[in-house]
Amino acid sequence: xxxxxxxxxxxxxxxxxxxxxxxxxxxxxxxxxxxxxxxxxxxxxxxxxxxxxxxxxxxxxxxxxxxxxxxxxxxxxxxxxxxxxxxxxxxxxxxxxxxxxxxxxxxxxxxxxxxxxxxxxxxxxxxxxxxxxxxxxxxxxxxxxxxxxxxxxxxxxxxxxxxxxxxxxxxxxxxxxxxxxxxxxxxxxxxxxxxxxxxxxxxxxxxxxxxxxxxxxxxxxxx
Length: 223
What we know:
Blueprint: H1 16-19, H2 23-41, H3 43-51, E1 53-56, E2 61-64, H4 70-77, E3 79-82, E4 103-106, E5 111-121, E6 124-134, H5 137-148, H6 159-181, H7 192-198, H8 209-213
Antiparallel strand pairs: 1-2, 3-4, 5-6
């Protein structure tokens, strides 16, 4: 689908000996991702999405079929659309529309992130641009995996300290996931909930009950 072991670095780092091309790890995150994706999209929209995807064995990612409809392309890859003041067509009263930006930006289920750095090549500075794929679903898969599996991060100290540290990692990941799915994002960027609510005419199959029931957690995992 949209997560891949190469995404598990930085904030969602899992030691390579636990995950890199590890069959158990890949099976676990793929199953978790599929279930959560079905939860937040609802069965009907999730099924429509699957009908328009094909798995690329070489890259390890699902890709859009050539004949995928435009609304599915935008759901997966992201889109910039007009910010209409009354555009929140909420199904349950959650969501937000605080930005004064005249455009809104949905980053997509699979975001293409680009970053640049300067490489010194024999006294000549060359700008290198790197592109990486990332899905916010990775945050949830990460939290779920280290919750249900023994992962050694190489922490020093007592077992109580390590457990607390892991709990903070889990909570931070769940907070990031929540913000992408339902939170009030800064600037023109919007959550999945806001995007689907704004464009409900394009997504009549979306069922928002699961997102509406989601509750935010803090760094200690408390609601």
